[in-house]
Amino acid sequence: MVQTMSEVGPTFEGAGGDALPETVAALERLSWNYWWSWNPDGSSVFRDLDQEVWDECEHNPRRLLRVISQNSLMRMATDPVYIERVSRLAASFDAYMTAGAQVWAAAHAREITREHPVAYFCAEFGVHHSLPLYSGGLGILAGDHLKSASDLGLPLVAVGLLYHQGYFRQRLRRDGWQEETYNTIDVADLPLQLVRGDDGEPVHIELEMRGRVVRVRAWRVEIGRVPLYLLDTNVEGNDEIDRMISGHLYGGDRETRCVQEMVLGLGGVRLLRRLRLEPHVFHLNEGHSAFLTLELARERTERGENFEEAARVVRSRCAFTTHTPVAAGHDEFVAPLIERCFGEVYWQQLGLTREEFLNLGRVKEDDESELFGLTPLALRMCRSSNGVSRKHGEVSRELWNKMWPTRHVDEVPITSVTNGVHAPTWVSPLLRALYEERVGMDWTRVLYDAAAWSAAVELIPDEELWKVRRLMKKRLVAFVRERVYGARLQQHEPLAYAESARSVLDAGALTIGFARRVAAYKRWGLLLTDAERLRRLIMDAERPMQFVFAGKAHPQDQGAKLILQQMALWELDPEVTRRAVFLQDYDQEVARQLVQSVDVWLNVPRRPLEASGTSGEKVALNGGLNLSVLDGWWLEGYDGRNGWAAGEESLGETTEESDARDADSLYRLLESEVVPAFYERDEAGLPHRWVALMRHAIQTLAPAFNSDRMVREYTERVYLGNQ
Ligand SMILES: *Cc1c(COP(=O)(O)O)cnc(C)c1O
Prior knowledge:
eleven-stranded mixed β-sheet; Rossmann fold; six-stranded parallel β-sheet; binds pyridoxal-5'-phosphate; about 15% strand
């Protein structure tokens, strides 16, 4: 039997190599499972050991326990209040890990078991910002999926890749140009356990790629009850180039991408076999893992089945989720690259000719002009395919109708499951406490029942909701000031200018958040279409508006970097600079700060290119209001009273015309709806109309757009196959 180090019991070497004092010994156990990150007292228990070191460690408890001073540790280990908090946290962790029959899946997904779990494959996982294996929405969504699967008790194992350099860290130069840096992760400082065999030796999977044998090891990370296996080629004895496969997330060339995806797909299946797992279903979360279908077929053809028979069985086991209608999101490779990476032995083992093999990745068979696409491969080899919102399902059916040319577009077999976010991860601690008090300790479960949730939220007094918002905004302003101050120091700005960061933003002003990848279709520039009109809104003496921006541009996307620079330079305009701030290095932590605190979340993608979007869902859960183009999830969420819809239903004749119309609609909404509602106050300073919108947003959006709902829907409709 393959075992992991957790079963052997990892040994503690923190605080100078000593074991933790017995009163707080449970911290060791807690630090090995990311469950702490979504428990209400989880991060504060670690933080309170030593706030400064905690921040320096970027909120990584493993590292904290290694580097914390004996003095800080002993101070807390002899503090009875602290000791009690650790005990309580450990007790709830143990109860969580051993909860058996009362979990949702025990009653609703009996066919899915530990031996026959869901195998969830993804190229990135955003579990926590201390584990930087994600670039954006896809990874965060995958992380939320694992957490909800864990909460629901759904037997699921996840498979991904370990990237030693992770995704890039963003720094803006003084002239606003983005620079990228990469930090190498320290495996020894993360809760990663090498997967070992019966003999205690690390398990190695072997793959043949580019004509060489590559050895792959695997690390296990605990996400509550869900294990995440991360494949890693940085193994001694491998060719240097092969060791680099586990280097950067989305940083390499086409060939690197292809072999990364082979490691994920082929290596992932081989690993699961070594773990003696026969998954009930393989979930391909985006096409990056589509090669796994080939490996599953190869297992059968090697045993004598022909490819057609094998493919039929594979299809009955695999489900595919597509995540974007944007072409760049669909990986494709030229035929010679595929041939070089796989080698002819691979298709011979499948019982296929070269052409037959290449056809698996083409929309039209024998069309040699086509590249080998992972989306066509996945659509062909999976029994079910879905987009991530109703609209995206529809768009995907149109986009991929070409795979089924004889069918009407409505008959294209692509459905949809709308994305959701993990409520305990994204809700602010303060609002969570209010939900616990007013809805109940089981508020995440009450969310399953929209009517019960709505009734409970109805009873929260306006003052209490507003108080949370006011405090959260103060917190955001403090956070922003510190970040901006730090960034200015780092850019070697004059000290007086750096210190003026302490007066940016105003906790009383209407605050608008805009944070997302800098990609053309997200239309970062839309807001600046009429700079004068925008300036009037920002500089209004009585009713000012302020902006917080964040987002990364893809390192190779010069156009996106220019957009970012334009934005950065605009906010340096002395008039604007105190009312508009760009936060560098957007990641899960920055996202959390923003979504928990801003009044309005702005989203203006070019329709219909936003497959779902999830950041606005996080905002809604926190009582923020969405002002968004009707696309993705917002088309389903918006009901006329829980936020605003920017832009018109119909598109303009040209892109420019649509952009101009949407910009005008955006300004009009801000001027005539958003600002008046926010600043309308009673004698006590309460904005009742605004709070009514907030409340209605929480009531209508939180039950529909959380990831428990999403995972339950995947389970019922996709994993159990009742589509
Ligand atoms: C939620 C989240 C996203 C997804 O945001 P959308 O713009 O809505 O797709 C991206 N990055 C981070 C860090 C997030 O937390």
